[in-house]
Amino acid sequence: MGYREEFEAIYREHISRAGSAELLAWLQTTDFFVAPASTKFHCACLGGLVQHSVSVYRVMREKHFDPEQDSEESFAVCALLHDICKAQFYKKGYRNYKNEETGQWEKRLFYSIEDSYPFGHGEKSVFLIERFMRLKASEAIAVRWHMGGFDEAARGGSFAVSQAYEKYPLAVKLHLADLESTYLREKGTSEVPHP
């Protein structure tokens, strides 16, 4: 089973609230299942975004799921859709790179960012999800703050992330799963050369 098939199977098994079918149908009209997860870091390859989303789900479910406190649906919603903002976000291009082994120049794929709706990373994901289905407060907070303070550092910082993590354990669990997936499990999955 490929990452797209696994994503869709998890989605259909665990997410059933009103609007979820329409959201999945919309995702299928975008580049979500073929887009990279980044331009040159983790999963910077064809299908990297769906690979990353499934990886975050696996880590989150494996390491942080408590059947007495957690919801299967909330875990699936947050993990699978936290980076929905990256659909229609990357632009393909080609650059010439010198192959050090052969000395020949080769044309290679690279990705750049072309954000047509620069709303903010977590905020944009929440906005896109809610165009189709309602999020619980804990899910919206988790998706909004899945990057931790990385987003806020560029804007001068905020104490809101600390308050979010204190009040919503789901947000902490998503953030930890995203970090582990990105920096530990997906290391070396970039197929796009660094410029």
Could you characterize the architecture of this molecule?
The chain has 9 helices and 2 strands; from the N terminus they run H-H-H-H-E-E-H-H-H-H-H. With 195 residues, the chain is mainly alpha-helical. It has one domain. Strand 1 and strand 2 form a beta hairpin. Helix 1 packs across helix 3, helix 3 runs antiparallel to helix 4 and helix 3 crosses helix 9. The chain starts with a helix and ends in a 10-residue tail after the last helix.
Instruction: Please give the order of strands in the largest beta sheet.
Output: 1-2
Distance between the termini: 32 Å
Measured by DSSP, the beta-strand proportion falls in 5-15%
- Biggest β-sheet, characterized? 2 strands, antiparallel
Order of helices and strands: HHHHEEHHHHH
Radius of gyration over C-alpha positions, nearest whole angstrom? 17 Å
Report the average pLDDT across residues.
Answer: 87
Helical coverage, percent range: 40-55%
Helix and strand content put the structural class at: mainly alpha
Q: Assign an overall shape.
A: globular
Q: What is the number of beta strands?
A: 2
Which secondary structure elements does this structure contain, and how are they paired or packed?
Layout lengths: L2 H12 L5 H8 L20 H17 L7 H10 L8 E9 L6 E9 L7 H10 L6 H8 L5 H4 L6 H8 L1 H17 L10
What are its keywords?
single chain; two-stranded antiparallel ribbon; 9 helices; 195 residues; 2 strands
Task: Sum this structure up briefly.
It contains 9 helices and 2 strands; from the N terminus they run ααααββααααα.
